[in-house]
Predict the 3D structure of the following.
Amino acid sequence: MIWPAERSVASAPDRAVLHDQLKILAGEQKNRGQTARSLATAAALVARFPFSGAGYWAMARALTPQPALRGWRRLRSGIARGGALKGLKRLLRFGLGSVGRALSLFSRQRNPGGVFFFFRTADFGGAERVHAQIVQGAQDLQPWVYFTERGNENGFLGEYRGAGRVIRPWRLAGGRILSRLYAGYLAGLISRHRHAVVFGSHCSLAYALVPLLSPHVRCVDLRHAFDAAHEEWALQFVPRLNARVVISLEHNRLRKELYRAQGLSGELAARSVVIENGISMGRRDTHDFHAPTLEVVFVGRAAPEKRVYLVGRIATECRKRALNLRFTLVGPIPEWVEPEDRAHCEFRGVVLDPTVMRRIYEQSHLLLLTSSSEGMPLVVQEAMAHAVVPISTRCGALHEHLDGTNGCIVENGDEARIVREVVGILERLLAQREELAAMSLRAWEYAQARFTAPGFAAAYRQVLLADSARGAVSPGGRD
């Protein structure tokens, strides 16, 4: 039995990217109190995609007063926390899962290697690139790779197809009822494999599977950033997860503090291991630090936490000071930068060709990261591997790696202060080219010592296949 919606569905990448970015941007502008801009973005979404409901919902949200939106969120949260409702939901999930498992009895599908990966999308992003590397490291096992959301450009899809069987059941995984049936079906199918392994990252379907799987199935999850709400929610699955992977020591420390506070055993805490991202090294001799104009690059998804608009403000302030800097943005569409700042930025859109991306790094001197939250951004590691000096807000695990000699960190918080401090650093490095060249060399040397890929692949294979994850180590050699 093969569910019809498991087959691939073609999409139009450019239009899908534009649609999704405008939809997210309209909500982000409303959250920042920019009602007029949110309404304008929603109107643009309606004009370009009149047959999509997203634009009309975005317009309605933009026109709704903030107190009403906050009240609605509190009401929904209160209902969701109700004890009786929770019990009813658990009963419904169990029933639907049982029906799904019964349906799996009619399936004759078999995964020869017994390894099943579950991810949200194969879109442009650092986490998605890491997922592709993990799958490629297990390609001899012929894994099955599930993508549970439709995604936009799905630019990394080709990297998975060469390493395993790709399945895109986004229609089945998206509905509240159908997704529970499908989770039961998959649980039954997977449990028939004697040495099955389920690996999920930021994927709700993977967590829905966990309580339905037979005890012999090995379960592993990966989180790229610490989210307190998610960590507390995921505690219910901890006894069943054989290994839990994080990408930074800070995340592991915070998780183990939560475990202690909740009275969980040391044996469960030992299942959480650190595997830092692994990257390929670039050249360090491609940068001209005496060029009249220095190149500053931003690389990232168009997402609220990235605060792309701050890059635009920094570019405008640098132009006011007549600083010889050129700002290039890879990923976001221009609408993510405020109108008055767009003229000072060059937009490259989504870049999926690794050769083109490598050339961008080789031509850049500095990387900007203005995020409010991160795990350990792959873009910082890639930039350092190409001798590009990162300047970032303090977030995630960056303070474990950037010490002022190989990159700069500014304190997070007040956005006006972030802009001032970043502009000050750029002005200083523009004037002190020898210091910039020295930082570039140290960034490259640090990446070579800490972020190289061979240890990454070996660590993930051990987590996937070992009886215990305690021996898993990061590429840098730390557990």
Summary: The chain has a mean pLDDT of 87. The chain is about 45% helix and 10% strand. Residues 294-450 form a domain with the Rossmann fold fold (CATH 3.40.50.2000).
